[in-house]
Design a protein that fits this description.
By secondary structure, the chain is an alpha/beta fold. It is built from 15 helices and 19 strands. The chain binds pyridoxal-5'-phosphate.
Length: about 450
């Protein structure tokens, strides 16, 4: 078994080396600072602390409580709100907290975006579609009936007029904004009246855009009408993999707490709570600068791809107001292939991206394994210190591979040389550092 452990270690080392030599453009990922990594490797990862700080079911929680209370306070400060529960262990679990708090079990109804329009699988129903069962979390776990909000494909956003009508007709218990393909702020203000008229609570899944929101650059869901926001802590907010729920409604605090524990978790990954607290302190210090740059880079990247002949969505709106850029690559079907093929081609050259369904893909007979879109994110490359000239260089790599059809092995060597200059996690207190280094303990 000692050999097995070595094998695991070698694979981890190889993974670190791969990322050291790559351009990371997955919109849902990011890297963490040395201080976050240290917290995540602490003894907290061995402990339990069920319940709320101060009223635990376990002994030995003095310092765990200290840090969890600090984490709650930093979350409240960053998002300017009166309540933060930092126990959900992921974004999906945070969404489940909202479902538990705001909907009835087994016969509740929710309105949100469908997956091809940008919704997440955790918003989805449990239903058979074209002979296949879809195990969406909302339907499978909470038994919710899911109705979709209307979508404006040209502007890649929820259509407020159509959706107001849908909400009034469906009378859901909850309207959920937010999603995984998320270019522009959602129309919460425009739909708030319709939701309130039918007695629906308003949730906001800020998994992708939480960092942009906390730093004040996207939209402010809690001020615009959302009763609570759920989010992951590791996308634009560059913490460890975890989740959280916030609200600015004093009257909802007890319901939200009860919706979380004991229903959804026993231990809540205390090491990640500590790491999350560190990342919040970093973002309170550096977030204004970092998140401004993420959005600037996304716009520049969209423009650079567009100028090289790519069909980047929403050129008429400046491509994006978030960390994401979405490209329609269906025109390359005959020459190179669709999303899955292009994802693999780019990976051969050490460029790591996501294929993604576009709103019209299913209608046009495409499938999520090989869809018509690419979703590209600038959170990690920005944290590595990249700016305008690098966005142009990366777009040039895309052109070389997809349009000029250059040999991916040759481009890979260029990508490795390019990545070599970007090995440090910026916007944190511990610089210099070597962010993709694999730390050995023995
Ligand atoms: C909108 C949205 N919500 C929830 C999640 C799930 O988050 P987690 O992976 O933290 O459970 C994601 C994941 O990317 C997401 O895009």
């Amino acid at each position: 078994m000692k050999d097995t452990i070595e094998k695991i270690r070698n694979s981890l080392q190889a993974h670190h080396d791969m990322f050291r030599n790559s351009i990371p453009l997955i919109a849902s990922e990011n890297i963490t600072s040395p201080a976050v990594k240290e917290a995540c490797c602490s003894d907290f990862s061995h402990r339990y602390a069920e319940g709320w700080p101060g009223s635990r079911v376990y002994a030995g929680c003095e310092y765990i409580d200290e840090i969890e209370i600090l984490c709650q306070d930093l979350t409240k400060k960053y998002f300017n709100c009166c309540f933060a529960d930092v126990r959900p262990v992921s974004g999906v679990m945070a969404n489940l907290v909202l479902y538990n708090a705001f909907t009835s079990r087994n016969n509740g109804k929710m309105c949100c975006m469908s997956i091809p329009k940008g919704g997440h699988i955790s918003h989805g129903p449990y239903q058979a579609t074209s002979g296949r069962l879809i195990y969406g979390t909302a339907g499978t776990v909470r038994g919710l009936e899911v109705k979709y909000l209307d979508f404006d494909e040209e502007n890649m956003n929820i259509d407020p007029d159509g959706s107001a009508k849908t909400i009034r007709e469906c009378k859901p218990e909850m309207v959920l904004f937010g999603g995984s393909v998320f270019l522009f702020p959602h129309p919460i203000k425009e739909l708030k009246d319709a939701a309130k008229e039918v007695g629906a609570s308003i949730g906001y899944d800020g998994a992708h855009v939480a960092g942009l929101i906390g730093s004040g650059y996207f939209q402010d869901p809690l001020r615009e009408g959302a009763d609570a926001m759920s989010f992951s802590t590791h996308k634009t907010l560059p913490g460890p993999q975890h989740g959280a729920v916030i609200s600015d409604r004093e009257d909802l605090i007890e319901d939200l707490k009860n919706a979380a524990f004991p229903a959804l978790f026993s231990n809540h990954h205390l090491h990640n709570v500590a790491g999350f607290a560190v990342s919040l302190a970093e973002m309170i210090e550096f977030g204004k600068e970092y998140h401004k740059k993420i959005i600037e880079n996304a716009k520049l990247f969209g423009q650079a791809l567009y100028e090289r002949g790519f069909k980047v969505l929403c050129e008429h709106l400046g491509f994006t107001e978030s960390h994401q850029v979405v490209v329609d690559i269906a025109n390359f079907e005959k020459s190179v292939g669709l999303g899955g093929d292009i994802e693999r081609l780019l990976e051969e050259a050490n460029i790591i991206i996501n294929r993604n369904l576009l709103p019209w893909d299913i209608r046009d007979g495409r499938h999520y394994m090989n869809p018509g879109g690419l979703r590209l994110g600038t959170s990690e490359v920005t944290r590595l210190g990249m700016g305008k000239s690098e966005m142009v260089e990366i777009a040039e790599f895309f052109k070389k591979l997809i349009i000029d059809k250059q040999d991916p092995k040759k481009v890979k060597e260029e990508v490795k040389a390019f990545s070599n200059d970007f090995q440090e996690c910026k916007y944190c207190f511990q610089t210099p550092n070597n962010t993709y280094e694999f730390h050995k303990f023995y």
